[in-house]
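Sat 14:20. Reprocessing the chain from the morning session after the first attempt stalled halfway. Input below, unchanged.
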Amino acid sequence: MAGFIGKELHALDEKGRLMIPARFRRDFVRQNGIVAEHKRKGSDGSDDGIYLYLMKVPDGSLELYEPGVWQEMKKSLDGLSDFNPEERLLKTMIYESLDVVAVDRQGRIPFTKEFLDHAGILKELVIIGADTKMIIWEPERLASVLHDNAARFATLAGRYF
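Finished this time. Tokens:
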């Protein structure tokens, strides 16, 4: 089954929250029983809702992962040694860039100032569905990256496809 596919322009609300596009929210429900994995129980046993993993990416974007996808990535991280300086550094850098965000009943997720500053997002943003994740960009930053790298597309596509 296809994952997150498409691109949408959105804006943060007055509290710095992003409304996940409806077509991407539907994917949470459609995936075979995956919603149960996304739910956490509160200390009182109540259902705390759906969570996503939010990561700052070195290129200036943000990425959102469903828990099932993140758990697969975590398996690779768990295999790294805390006694190997390079592997320990990688784990530190990844976990420093990671947060868990709750999806509220209206399908919104909050962003901290740290994450918004990293991505240069003030109000508007672009969400790109990239199959197993959603990539979030400040619109002008994305346009610049695409423009600056347009000539590389054919070379990259030829190398990897």
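The two ends are 21 Å apart (CA to CA).
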